């Protein structure tokens, strides 16, 4: 029973960490796109 609880805690922690990682990557990609867009606007 305690192994099951430990496994669930580890899985839950990994899932939360994964969500934060994906969210951070999405923000980085969005910022990169904005920088490219701004650069294109400046060089029209």
From TrEMBL:
<keyword id="KW-0472">Membrane</keyword>
<dbReference type="Pfam" id="PF08085">
    <property type="entry name" value="Entericidin"/>
</dbReference>
<comment type="similarity">
    <text>Belongs to the EcnA/EcnB lipoprotein family.</text>
</comment>
<keyword id="KW-0564">Palmitate</keyword>
<dbReference type="GO" id="GO:0009636">
    <property type="term" value="P:response to toxic substance"/>
</dbReference>
<keyword id="KW-0449">Lipoprotein</keyword>
<feature type="signal peptide">
    <location>
        <begin position="1"/>
        <end position="17"/>
    </location>
</feature>
<keyword id="KW-0732">Signal</keyword>
<dbReference type="GO" id="GO:0016020">
    <property type="term" value="C:membrane"/>
</dbReference>
<protein>
    <submittedName>
        <fullName>Entericidin</fullName>
    </submittedName>
</protein>
<keyword id="KW-1003">Cell membrane</keyword>
<dbReference type="InterPro" id="IPR012556">
    <property type="entry name" value="Entericidin"/>
</dbReference>
């Amino acid at each position: 029973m305690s192994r099951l609880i430990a496994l669930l805690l580890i899985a839950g922690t990994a899932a939360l960490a994964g969500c934060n990682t994906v969210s951070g990557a999405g923000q980085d990609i969005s910022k990169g796109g904005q920088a490219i867009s701004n650069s294109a606007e400046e060089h029209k």
